[in-house]
User: Fold these one by one.
Assistant:
Number 1:
Amino acid sequence: MAASAKKASSSKKTAAPSKTTANLAIDRVSEPVEDYLKAIYDLAGKSGTASTNDVAARLNVAAASVTGMIRRLASQGLLEYERYRGVRLSETGRVVALRTIRRHRVIETYLTEVLGYPWDRVHDEAERLEHAASDELVDRMATSLGNPTSDPHGAPIPTADGQMDERRHQTLAELDIGTRARMVRVSDKNPGLLRYLAEIDLTPGTEVQVLARAPFDGPITLQVGDTEPVVGQGLAVQVLVEEVQDET
Amino acid sequence: MAASAKKASSSKKTAAPSKTTANLAIDRVSEPVEDYLKAIYDLAGKSGTASTNDVAARLNVAAASVTGMIRRLASQGLLEYERYRGVRLSETGRVVALRTIRRHRVIETYLTEVLGYPWDRVHDEAERLEHAASDELVDRMATSLGNPTSDPHGAPIPTADGQMDERRHQTLAELDIGTRARMVRVSDKNPGLLRYLAEIDLTPGTEVQVLARAPFDGPITLQVGDTEPVVGQGLAVQVLVEEVQDET
DNA sequence: TCACATTTTTAGCGGAGGCTAAAAATAAAG
DNA sequence: CTTTATTTTTAGCCTCCGCTAAAAATGTGA
């Protein structure tokens, strides 16, 4: 009679907490759920809604699986859903998504800054750790980094209470020839591109100037920082920039 | 026709690798599987085998679930199993278990040393991270810590190639009264005990001397380091020590 | 508006890992 | 050597999260 600790129910723990400000203290959800919410969050973008198909493509699952998961998420109040009408995150869902995104980005930053991970390989590691790391751990990492506001790829890091800088940026492809701009951001999902950008020193914060550019993301001639001009290919629509005021 | 990237098979990737030394490069297994292997590893201890019931108690699952999982693990070659006869890890299973244990302990050490986690709360965090962290990440942490050989609770950290110091130690309860000893290790699973030990400064490396002791883990009087003697309760069988040679 | 294309949903299924209740094997006690 | 207790397994079921194939809804071009 030494071991008899069954009682698997776990339904008595969730009392209704504060509710004062934003409902922080939301039960942690499963890994797939976090992935769905993240995907929906950034597919929805400005319009606010995302389509089944887009979510499926993003997560590399069948559309039917998305429908199934979406029904579950809706029944948990994480999103609003109307058949055939697309999906929109609820406030709760948005908060969960943002916290997941925060974890991801803080972890990426930490791995890069503190543990010397190359910026083209942090994504996969962060993708796994974001589901396992507690908010406390992430906050400790953030603190030890001095609460950075963007990750190594220039993506904004949501604050612990769910605020995020949502500014939209231009791509290099949209930039007027000759304008001076600061490299702001690039997706963390394309290791090849990231290695290439590191090679030509085009990283967030660097000043660039487009000297010439072919349409449809064709060859582009860039002056990166003060170095010799380089000719790049296939990066114009990937790299986000922000014009820089010439102080005359 | 923009999105059509199904092809979910992922079975072409696993060619047979080196096989030279120990079969490192073993496919990563699921979280429950890692937990079972860890549990079996340290329940088996010296005898080499573990019982269904013990595993069930350790993992807080029903015995029937253990039988089910054990069959799966056996069919994957991670352990040897004979109905009603208990279970023994295969070499592969042992390696997987040790790598998981290494991840756990390195992570605990890192959280404590670098991120300031209190030693009574690292266990839970490590328990989750150990399944998500890559061996590369763990090796980077280990390197940045100077490749420690034991974690904050004194547990030995297996090396990256699966060697671990398996020395057995005495408990405080077994120590002759008056003998001077060094505190070596305590379980990481009991936060209350850990807080208490921290309070009386009884941490790995500290010298202790048992001044008096009641049987059956009753009250014990200890001299910890050079401080005033303290009377403790319920820790004698938990705290592992190693006698210290008086250099006369 | 009708016909066809596309998107989304439903129906039905599978595997991993849980569970309980009952049966079977092993171990312990008389 | 039985009888009883304990341990382990089997049987049958459940949930989560995938899948495919087929049906239904929506959208589009003529």
Number 2:
Amino acid sequence: MINPLRGMKDLMFEDSQRFVHIITTAITVAKRYGYSYIETPILEETALFRRSVGDSSDIVSKEMYQFEDKGGNDVCMRPEGTAGVVRAFVSGKLDRQPAKQKFYYYGPMFRYERPQKGRLREFHQFGCESFGEASVYEDFTIITMVGQIFKALGIGFELKINSLGCPECMPPYKQNLVSFLTDISEDLCADCNRRIETNPIRVLDCKNEQCQSLLAQSPKLIDELCEACDTDFKKLTSLLDDAGIAYEVDTNLVRGLDYYNKTAFEFVSNEIGSQSAIAGGGRYDKLVEYLDGKPTPAVGFAIGAERIMELVQMPGREREGYYMGAMVPEAVEKIIMLANRKRTSDKVTVEYSSKGFKSHMKGVDKAHARYAVLIGEDELANNTVWIKDMESKEEKTVAYTV
RNA sequence: GUGGACGUAGUUCAGCUGGUAGAGCACCUGUUUGUGGCACAGGUUGUCGCGGGUUCGAGCCCCGUCGUCCACCCCA
């Protein structure tokens, strides 16, 4: 027996229904905000992710499904969605046009990690990317949208926000941080010491308790933002306050991908194990440029479908459509013809084998059909069908017209 | 990549100190040759993850391997 690869899953029945419900709900909300669908390839040049997600991230340095294709190209399966959308934005020369663009996407992403709860090697994200809008109003709007999607899905969450600054205020802050960290490096864990070199900002969200207690004294970017970033961040918080959206400023919130600046946010749930982030996003004003486009501000987010699968409250399932069956073999083909005709407008479950009344009724329940339609001896003789509405319990026998 | 737990029927699991494999649920049939969800009765299903070893004998012990889950790392 051949099973799916490690960290990859088949989705069916209840699970696939939940999945579809998540995606369709998110699409409905995104459309209300003016987003249109974009589909980009799963396979991209490896360079795309090196330049966008960043070499220093674990995603790129050790988690990519990377290989050489038959044409000798260095390619990899996308580990996240933003890079591809931005690439498409630039490839399509949309950066040369003044129009603002808003795209939503969903689909599989691939990271070669050790699977655990809420973390698969092939997982699915729904995301949105808004291009050309520099206003912090857009940051606020996009956070609101994510909140609405979760609300529509019946999922509770906490919102964490932070500002990552910009090329003006981040570098000097990073210097301050590095010198602070260097002073206390002896007491920091091995990982943090490595991060001081590779990506000092990441030290901030180290989970080691000792590190965290030492970091309480660390300089906070929030206190060292340049005027523009500071104004925007204060605006964002006041907008959230006015909208009645609860949030927590988490100065240690650092997005794992290199391309973020200014607003960073994360939606977390405490109901799903240690992988608590259910959505994440923020502003990435420099990424279009990094990928050879004209400077274009942008904001976006992604929701992890698998992370919220168990949290979603599914709408109650109501009886729907018809179940059709025959109780004498000669009536089977009549049933099939009837069903084909009815299927032009309704959901129909057909039982091909002739069987007893009782087992048909069980079939009706199993199919969760609203109406039972049966042909037995009498009906066959009279060219009629017997119909029962399973909810109202009403029954009738009606003429079957050819 | 590191650490821990676990792989027995479709599923959830039981199986004592090694002695020829069991329960609930599900499924099928019947009670009821035309009124479903309930009840009752009966029935089907296993290379006990895979490979090797110890033993007269292994689901149980040992080694390896694959897989699952959880945690770390990282992230949605």
